[in-house]
Design a protein that fits this description.
Radius of gyration: 18 Å
Largest sheet: none
Number of strands: 0
Distance between the termini: 47 Å
Helix content: over 70%
Structural class: mainly alpha
Shape: globular
Length: 153
């Protein structure tokens, strides 16, 4: 079990590292005038730090202390982490092509599904509301421009 956990933590560490390195190419800017890579850089750093901490904790904790509950928990946890990483990767890849609104709705559908929502009516409603509110806040209040995508919105 410890080997499976270690592999996941190492993979998450490298994913965070790649995010951080690639976001440097976009430009960090400053805290007052952040560049495109500002937020992805710090998210990647945080992801790598958390994965490294979890990896070290995993090596320092004896397997006998964790027990069967940890194994049951980790099995579902690893799958959910994989789904979230896949959803975020897919989101980044389709953002320019589909545009902010459609890509973000799809992202939230996947995240709400992984998060435990089972009724599609709630998933679709919450995804639409969350995307709409974020779009209004960031486009109207903060005057940010989002990718429009091939549909033009």
């Amino acid at each position: 079990m410890a080997n499976r956990e270690s592999v996941v933590y190492i993979a998450v560490f490298f994913i965070g590292l790649v995010f951080s390195i690639e976001s440097l190419r976009l430009g960090l800017g400053s805290a007052r005038h952040p560049g495109s890579g500002f937020l992805p850089f710090f998210i990647g750093v945080a992801l790598s730090i958390i994965a490294l901490y979890s990896l070290l904790k995993n090596f320092l904790t004896a397997k006998g202390e964790r027990g069967r509950d940890m194994e049951k928990f980790f099995g579902g946890f690893a799958v959910n982490v994989g789904k979230i990483v896949a959803a975020l990767t897919l989101y980044v890849l389709m953002l320019l092509w589909f545009g902010y609104i459609l890509s973000t709705i799809i992202l939230f559908i996947m995240l709400f599904r992984v998060g435990g929502f089972r009724r599609w009516a709630f998933i679709l409603l919450y995804s639409f509301l969350t995307t709409s509110i974020s779009y209004l806040v960031f486009s109207s209040w903060l005057k940010l421009r989002f990718p429009k995508g091939f549909l033009g919105f």
